[in-house]
Amino acid sequence: MMEKESKKKINLSRLTESAMMIAIATLLSMAKLIDMPYGGSVTMASMLPLVILAYRHGLGWGLLSGLAYGAIQFALGSENIGYLPATNFVYVTVMLLADYLLAFAVLGFGGIFRRTCKRQATALALGSVLVALLRYACHVIGGWTVWAAFDLSKTGLLYSLSYNATYMIPEMLILVVAAIFLGNALDFRADSLRPMPVEEKSSASGGLLMGALALIAFGLSFAVVQIFGKLQDADTGKFTTAGLGEVNWLLVCVVSLLCFLAAIGLLILRRNGKKAAKEAEKKE
């Protein structure tokens, strides 16, 4: 009886946690940095809560949580079906499976590096890269099929690869940086959430490296959003260079350059700090 009650409490706790994480992921998905005209967006690391769930509770639980999240995303993004000029059962089914259910179910693979990587931040970062690539592949397959409705069958694969990359590249960069940050701050391996033990936290050197990566990720994401967001004709769905004239190139160059220079500065500080630490050890 005691074992059954204990299992019930564990399952209830896990369900409650999953519901909260899916709700957080849904809210983050609404904080869009860019919203593409035919579906897809860059968000504030909306996939991370699902990656954490998979890391904490395993592949099976992660896949189920991803499916539930995908169903919610389909309900919230159902207006995208209206963009299809030849909407029918086949297109809707492909969109539901490839662009939502499968695309978010793959978030369940976010925790598969837990046993192979000792450092939690590394495991979460690698898991984030993997799920982002898997999700991108699902969107490419779905887009390749659905975009045939726009008479792009001859260049459908190339178009789908390009279109989905415009938001998935920034999305992946933001996700990885957020995963590294939280992976160094909180211990997700414990039964209940707690701060990362002091001995496992990143050193100042690791913090500077993470800051440099965050700056580079932000600079790249900003450039991609500003440039690729102007390359698509909202009426035809086709890519065109006509929109390049609307890009604020001065702003793109200034922001990208500042991010790059700041990242270089942090890396120099990191290198100097390591040298100073080694010299101090030698003197001792």
List the helices and strands and how they pair.
Blueprint: H1 2-30, E1 32-35, E2 41-43, H2 48-57, H3 59-76, H4 89-105, H5 120-146, H6 156-185, E3 186-187, E4 194-195, H7 204-228, H8 249-283
Antiparallel strand pairs: 1-2, 3-4
Structure description:
The structure is a single chain. The longest helix is centred in the last third of the chain and has 35 residues, at 249-283. The protein is flat and about 75 Å long. 67% of the residues lie in helices and 4% in strands. The model has no long low-confidence stretch (mean pLDDT 81). It starts with a helix and ends with a helix. The strands form 2 sheets. The chain has a two-stranded antiparallel sheet. The protein is mainly α. Strand 3 and strand 4 (194-195) form a beta hairpin. The chain is built from 8 helices and 4 strands; from the N terminus they run H-E-E-H-H-H-H-H-E-E-H-H.
The value of Rg in angstroms is 21 Å
Task: State the total count of DSSP E strands.
Answer: 4
Largest sheet, spatial ordering of strands: 1-2
Q: What ranges have pLDDT less than 50 throughout 5 or more consecutive residues?
A: none
Percentage of residues in strands: under 5%
What class do helices, strands and sheet pairing give? mainly alpha
Principal-axes shape call: flat
**Could you describe the largest sheet, including whether it forms a barrel?**
2 strands, antiparallel
Number of H/I helices: 8
Oligomer classification: single chain
As a percent range, the share of helical residues equals 55-70%
Distance between the termini: 60 Å
What is the helix/strand order? HEEHHHHHEEHH
Could you tell me the mean pLDDT?
A: 81
